[in-house]
Design goal:
Length: about 240
């Protein structure tokens, strides 16, 4: 039986690359997405991977959405919490709404999604949960108190949950990407991005496929002794 993998925010950017890489490894993959129907349709046409729309910040929507995936694709063996947004601004200019939106979408979503799959993984004595954190959750970033707090929270969430899953064959790990060639990073003003890239030892942005490679490694059946860890994939920008 093929293992089933569910990727949140799976139809674009890093999530899309993760879906494709897992499919190429023989997983039965389902993608979740939040808003962009056009991109989701193109993604499914291109990859043959089904896409399911719900808001990962909404607890009930996650329970219903995952139940549908289980029904149509199968019980989830591998969960990739990848969905995330930015609402960058300095603290002075940041609204409470933009604080809350980023915390709920990037961090509370991990709780919402894990609640929907964890008991099943425990019963089946196998699970792989991979949370996509960020270099900016490790090092902080000017203009991102909301995003850095959420991503930093993901790293704590990962280490705590790893302890709860370990005896049941469930590993929980994080990947901390650096600056990757995606729409999210393209939204950073050019003059700011230039300065950031100048500080990356490898001398370029990363590619989504380079993050997907880490996911494939951590998702493998053979990766059962790796849990509670953070894999930094950032071109040497932050060695942590
Ligand atoms: N450290 C210290 N000072 C800084 C600074 C820094 N890193 N960056 C900017 N400043 C200063 C500027 O020099 C400027 O000072 P002066 O007015 O004295 O010249 C002041 O702060 C205001 O800077 P901006 O003109 O940039 O302010 P703004 O309000 O127009 O924009 C911002 C602020 C929205 C935060 C903008 O700087 C920005 O978008 N920064 C990029 C943030 C970023 O890296 N986001 C990552 C998105 S991708 C992602 O998150 C994926 C991932 O996981 C890596």
């Amino acid at each position: 039986m093929k293992r089933v993998a569910l990727v949140t925010g799976g139809t674009r950017g890093i999530g899309k690359a993760i879906c494709v890489a897992l499919k190429n490894q023989g997983y039965q993959v389902a993608a979740n997405y939040g808003g962009n129907d056009d991109a989701a349709r193109k993604f499914t046409e291109e990859t043959g991977i089904p896409a399911y729309k719900w808001d990962v910040a909404d607890f009930e929507a996650c329970q219903t959405g995952v139940a549908k995936v289980v029904d149509e694709v199968g019980p989830v063996d591998v969960l990739i919490n990848n969905a995330g947004i930015t609402r960058d601004s300095t603290l002075t200019k940041m609204s409470f709404e933009n604080w809350q939106k980023v915390i709920e979408t990037n961090l509370t979503s991990c709780f919402n999604m894990v609640k929907a799959v964890f008991d099943g993984m425990k019963e089946r004595k196998f699970g792989r949960i991979i949370n996509i954190g960020s270099i900016n959750g490790q090092a902080g970033q000017y203009g991102q108190v909301n995003y850095a707090a959420a991503k930093s929270g993901i790293h704590g969430f990962t280490k705590a949950l790893a302890q709860e899953g370990a005896r049941a064959g469930i590993t929980v790990n994080a990947i901390a990407p650096g600056y990757i060639n995606t729409d999210m990073v393209a939204a950073v003003p050019d003059n700011v991005l230039e300065k950031i890239v100048a500080k990356i030892p490898v001398g370029r942005l990363g590619e989504p496929e380079e993050i997907a490679r880490g996911v494939v490694f951590l998702a493998a059946d053979e990766a059962g002794f790796i849990t509670g860890s953070t894999l930094s994939i950032n071109g040497g920008q932050h060695m942590y």
